[in-house]
Each structure stands twice: as structure tokens, then as C-alpha cells.
Task: structure prediction
Amino acid sequence: MEWKKLFPNFEPELVELIEKNAVQRSFNAGDIIMRTGQYIKSTALVLEGQIKIYRENPEGGEFLMYYLGPGQACAVSMICAIQSTTSEIMAKAEVDSEVLMVPVQLMDDMMNKYKSWYQFVIQTYRSRFDELLSVVDNIAFRNMDERLEFYLKRHAEKTGKKTFEISHQEIADDLHSSREVISRLLKKMEQRNLVRLHRNMIELI
Amino acid sequence: MEWKKLFPNFEPELVELIEKNAVQRSFNAGDIIMRTGQYIKSTALVLEGQIKIYRENPEGGEFLMYYLGPGQACAVSMICAIQSTTSEIMAKAEVDSEVLMVPVQLMDDMMNKYKSWYQFVIQTYRSRFDELLSVVDNIAFRNMDERLEFYLKRHAEKTGKKTFEISHQEIADDLHSSREVISRLLKKMEQRNLVRLHRNMIELI
DNA sequence: CCTGCACTGTGATCGAAATCACAGGGTTTA
DNA sequence: TAAACCCTGTGATTTCGATCACAGTGCAGG
Result:
């Protein structure tokens, strides 16, 4: 796997350092990559697949914040890594995925020595921050019907597919809503000719 | 005003550079420091007072995300500055405040030359990111009564006072709720002996 | 093939919060 | 001092979404 292609700005030395110390791990669709409360020992760089990042509620329930795709990194793991605190989020593989785990101990060193690395870190914070802002927008200002449309649209963008294999229950979990509400809203969208509904599959129009 | 005391890690050279190029501005309580959609020309360092950072809804309404106090900086202005995009937030002075405006053009240079500056930037991203996560928590998982309690508690922490001069309408605006709802919830809190209500003032117990 | 289970559709009910309506009390200002 | 205005309290109504209840349907495994 030519992972360097995903990070074209990394200096050769940095690539070498990572290659020597990082571990590549494979996850199957649905696997939990990181749990809330788990101690963080490494920063995750996504090489392949799609990772979903959730915020979890101690009283049960979860809430999908955003996706990570190839070439992106988990901002939260960087934060926790340096502060050596536990994870405040949960990460789940949406499809089979490959992830490069870079040990925390290297982070400080890399930040100092490699300009491309700290630019990457800064860039990561920036984009996640922007995404968090639109998450706030959605839940603060939008109703469930709009949030559902946003959810479907975003998924289509991230995967590039017009079909979406998922059950209503799973959507409800991601949006921290309930299955019946999602079913009804989807039916309305079907009547407005925005989607076609099938068993375990939604077709976007 | 000995602003350097607030940023003890800044190298003398960096302090000098900032002193030469930055402009100090004063705001009165209630002043809008930055509007949504406004073009960002500088990064704001808070020297004195308290700044409230809001997300605005194009269809009207706003939502308080967090506070900035002395020694803190606006993460969003850093992000927008470097990407030279417009502001995605609104900033309002809660009390009379002093702010140091550092021109965008310096940012790149400072990031490269001064370690203390980039550590400060990274640290700023980190803490704002953490705060955004708890904002998401609140609106995704909590009801209005809990959010109101959190709001009052946070304000008490930020100001160190047990009294809070504010109208119910203003609280409703900050929480993107309505005046009647806040009035009723406050009454319930008074019955539970958590607060005492007065005109334009709330006393925390 | 049929049995069980996961997925979907839909009605009924409940609860939280938004909205409407209005009254009374305090403050400001003309 | 009277009028106008803001702030607060409270009832009634409506809307959105959660929850309960239950029925039908497709699918997988024995």
C-alpha cells in the first residue's frame, strides 16, 4: 500500500520515521476503532475506507459528528495524545478500513522537527473545527427533517454513491433520534421524490 | 497595560514584533467585535474583560458557544485568517474589554519563527475544540433545564460572581430558546432553592 | 418449507418546548 | 405625573419528536 501518496507533503525523513515506528491496522466494517474513555496511545491516520466519529452520551445514545476519509487524521486523538487524557469520542469503521497508528511519543519530536507534520496537524485542527461548527449549526438551528436530508447528502458526497445500504434504525442512532421518526420523515421525502425506499437501502434522487 | 504578563511564554522578540504591529482596541459592554460574514484581517488576543462567541443562524437567532477571557485567543479568527475566508461566528463583548489585534500577514511568519507562538496556536485550537465538544454534548443530549443550569454555572465560574445581571430574554437568546420557557424554568429552579430571582438579576445559591 | 427475526409502516399518546395572549409591576422619559 | 416601555408571570394552544403498540413483509437458517 503506497500510503505516502496520501500525504505528499511529508518530508522523506518524516516518512521514514513514521514507517519505522507506526503500525498499520485493518478494521472490518462496523469495528470500533476507539472507545469513549479509552486511553490514547497513538494518533490515527486514515489510509483507506471511512471512519465515523461519534460523541457518546453516558446515559446511552450516540451522535455522529463527522467522517474521516483517506489522508485525514483524528484531531481528537492528537489532542488527547498530547494532554495524555482519555478519548472523548468513539470511532467506528463504516466500511473495511486501513489505519496507520503513530505512537504518541513521536508527536512532540515530529512537531519540532518536521514542518510538514505541524502543518498537517494545524490543517487537521482547522478542518475538524469547521466541521464541528456545522454540527453545532445543525443541531442548534435545524429540525429533524433538514438534519436527515443533510445526513443523506453528506453520505452521498463522502462515498460518491447514490445508493445507501442502511436501516432506518441505524440512521436514527447516528442522528440520536428514533426509528419511527426517521421512517416517517423518509416516507415524506419519498413522496417529495427525493429518495426511493427499499429494504435496507435508500436510493437518492 | 502589561499585556505580556498574560502570555509569559512569548519570546522577547515575538513580544516586540507584536508590539510593533498589533493594535489595541477597546470595546464597551455589548459591542459587537466581529460579525458573521465579516472579512478577517487580524487575530484577536483578549487582554481584559470577557468576550462571548456566538454562532448565528441566517434565518435569525444566535447561539452562545463559549467565552474568551484574558490570555485567550479567538481560534476562529486564526482559521479564517490563514484561509482568508470570512468569519463564521459573531463575537460580542460581555463587559468592557481590551483586545489586541494582530494582523493576519504576520501569522505565517510568526508560526515559522516563534515556537512559543505556534504552541500558543495549537493550545488555542485544543481548548476551543474541547469546548465545542461539550457544546455538542449539551445541545445533543440535554434538555433545556439542564442547559440552563449549565449556562448559569458556567457564567458564575467565568466571572466569579454569585449575582448575574441579565434579563430572561437575553438568556433565551443565548440558548436559542424563548423568554417564556426560560422564565418558567427559572421559577422552577427558584422553587428548588437554586436561585433567587430579581428584576434584571439572578442570584445563584 | 416454515419458523423466527429483523426491517418497515402507521396509529395513538405523551412530553418538551415554541408560540400566542394577556396582565401586572417597575423604570424611564416626556 | 402620566404615558410608554421593558421585564416578569402564567394560562392556553400548537408543533415536533419520543415512545408505545402492533401489524405486515421479506429474508435467513434450520
